[in-house]
Write a structure and sequence with these properties.
There is one protein chain. The protein is 44% helix and 6% strand. The chain is an alpha+beta fold. Among the domains are: 160 residues, 2-Layer Sandwich (Potassium Channel Kv1.1, Chain A), CATH 3.30.710; 193 residues, no CATH class. Strand 1 and strand 2 form a beta hairpin. The longest helix has 25 residues.
Length: 588
């Protein structure tokens, strides 16, 4: 593959994400923007998930290089050395296939139930040993027999597809290509080779042989095969996994030798784009920083700024307890500290917090509708300007729930208290505001019935901490809300996978590749059940709602929300619909 370094176009479009209370020298930015394939290796050990795939990949490489047979049983780790024991020998079967090195025995009922005239015609009655009533003979393959590496193995694999058993071969792709030839002759599809391909594709999906997650050793071969067979859905999914593996440094460029030049160029573009997106998210997430454009609009709102900075400090301490330090160490393979699991955790936490404190209803107030807090700060316009600058679509709601208003508390030092008592200064002259506890004030400004996660509990505890006693309650909530809003928008760029992927469980690399131009033979052939990632909050919101734990509700709303479960349905046009347990559409 040609150079995967960041292009000049991307380098000049990097937004100015200088954050509050931090500096990023230009030389540091240059180091960050170097693609991991060209970055100097760090001393940080490789991720644990990479070592778990090592045995499978070593096995695949050994099989490919030494022409040793492997058996493919499906799923990411479904490959092992073939030990000669064949599970397609059914001792109770009544149909036999004679091969050069082995015999295959299975139940003829399987053939008859297919109702395929072509298959049934290959069965003939025989007088065999006890229990055997039929022989199964494969027709002549003509000139195509020279294209098959191991004829008997290909016949054996065809029988395996009929009875849905694993196939065997030196590589998965070589076994599938031989299988295509056999299927074409058995079903007389010489003039309709696409039908033979569809047969093989259906088998691959049923046994999940298309699951190449954490298998960089043979993913390049499979990607090339999906392109040759014009299998758009498998190509797009495999392409996404290839881009993720390239960016985390576990996929060798040699593994992509079989892909076409067009696909190679698309991989290069998508890999560069993903690296750029991860970097632009990773930099501000290091300290949960806010754009200077937003900070500049705060003007003289010292209380909001104070709350914002205190919340940033709280977030750094909170996640340092979880990951050992914040940000976590940069991984040797990827060149990033940010990973898919970290991003998904952050998105889950901030998504739950957003749901907890967001104001979704119009408040009946004498205050300006654009300023329900009455502080003179137009947050909707503030966020719209920033969203427009960064290319985000606005979140559905731009305001948090406003707590009961309590002004800045005047805290009187103990020595002044003693002096006042001794000098008999009237108490009204040194008045101290004694309002309700901060915890009750802030917890009262939350959405009843919303799931309160561990992170949300820590947030409420932070709001009620003693350091905020001297802060206006409105300023305090607004400062924290600005951070929540900005983090939600940043995370939406990388926290959600491509919609409609079949295989994503246990994957640590990112699955949000840029799919522009795929599939290469016809971009209009993009699968209707899949949808590329876009800079839209709906993706992040859908992810949060569909993956949230069971709700914890108050006694008053327990009965009402006891069925608060969500069902995700994929519509034919590629959209996603979210329904509650009663069948009501809550998101589309």
């Amino acid at each position: 593959m040609s150079s995967l370094a960041i292009s000049e176009d991307y380098r000049h479009t990097i937004p100015k994400l200088a954050m509050a209370n931090t500096d990023h020298p230009e030389k540091d930015l240059e180091d960050i923007m170097v693609h991991p394939l060209f970055r100097k290796a760090a001393t940080t050990p490789a991720e644990s998930w990479i070592s778990t795939m090592a045995s499978v990949n070593a096995l695949l490489r050994d099989g490919i290089n030494k022409d040793r047979l492997l058996i493919f049983t499906g799923d990411a780790d479904g490959v092992s050395r073939y030990n000669g024991f064949d599970d397609i020998w059914d001792p109770k079967g009544d149909c036999k296939v004679r091969l050069e090195n082995q015999d295959v025995r299975f139940n003829s009922k399987i053939i008859f139930e297919t109702r395929s005239r072509d298959l049934i015609a290959l069965i003939s009655e025989c007088v065999c040993e006890e229990g055997m009533h039929y022989n199964f003979r494969v027709p002549s393959l003509g000139d195509d027999v020279e294209k098959i590496g191991k004829y008997d193995l290909a016949i054996r694999n065809f029988i395996a597809t009929i009875i849905r058993k694993p196939i065997i071969g030196t590589t998965l792709v070589s076994a599938l290509e031989d299988l295509q030839i056999i299927v074409k002759h058995i079903f007389r599809l010489q003039r309709q080779p696409e039908k033979a391909i569809e047969f093989v594709q259906e088998y691959v999906q049923d046994l999940k042989l298309d699951n190449c997650t954490n298998r960089p050793a043979d993913i390049g071969l499979f990607l090339a095969w999906t392109e040759r067979t014009h299998w758009s859905k498998a190509f797009v999914e495999t392409f996404a996994h290839c881009v993720g593996m390239l960016n985390c440094g576990v996929l060798d460029q040699e593994a992509l030798d079989d892909v076409s030049p067009t696909t190679r160029a698309l991989l290069e573009h998508s890999c560069t784009h993903m690296h750029y997106c991860l970097t632009t998210v990773e930099m501000p997430m290091t300290i949960f920083g806010i754009s200077p454009a937003i900070l500049g609009e705060l003007g003289d709102h010292a209380g909001i700024k104070q709350s914002l900075l205190a919340f940033q400090e709280f977030l750094g301490q909170h996640y340092a307890q979880i990951y050992g330090k914040w940000p976590p160490p940069v991984h040797q393979n990827s060149g990033h500290w940010i990973t898919r699991s970290i991003v998904q955790r952050l998105q889950q936490d901030f998504g739950n917090l957003y749901d907890l404190i967001v104001e979704t209803e119009h408040r009946d107030s004498t205050a300006d509708p654009a300023d329900p807090f009455g502080c003179g700060l137009d947050r909707e316009q503030l966020f719209k300007s920033w969203d427009r600058q960064c290319g985000f679509n606005p979140l559905p709601h731009a305001n948090p729930k406003a707590p009961d208003y309590y002004p800045t508390l005047v805290v009187e030092p103990d020595e002044e208290k003693g002096a006042r008592r001794s000098s008999l200064i009237p108490a009204m002259q040194k008045h101290v505001k004694k309002g309700p506890e901060l915890h009750n004030i802030y917890s009262g400004a939350t959405n009843e019935g919303t799931y309160v996660s561990t992170f949300c509990k820590a947030f409420l505890k932070h709001e009620a901490s003693s350091k905020h006693e001297e802060m206006d309650t409105h300023d305090g909530r607004l400062g924290r809300w600005i951070v929540v809003y900005c983090m939600m928008q940043l995370l939406s760029k990388v926290a959600v996978d491509i919609q409609g992927l079949r295989h994503s469980r246990g994957v640590e690399y990112f699955l949000n590749a840029d799919l522009d131009g795929t599939p290469p033979w016809n971009p209009d052939d993009f699968p209707v059940t899949m949808r590329p990632v876009s800079a839209h909050y709906s993706w992040a919101a859908l992810f949060a709602k569909a993956n949230r734990p069971p709700r914890r509700v108050s006694k008053n709303s327990a009965k009402k929300d006891s069925k608060a479960k969500f069902i995700v349905e994929y519509l034919p046009d590629g959209r996603v619909m979210l329904k509650d347990a009663d069948g009501h559409v809550v998101f589309r």
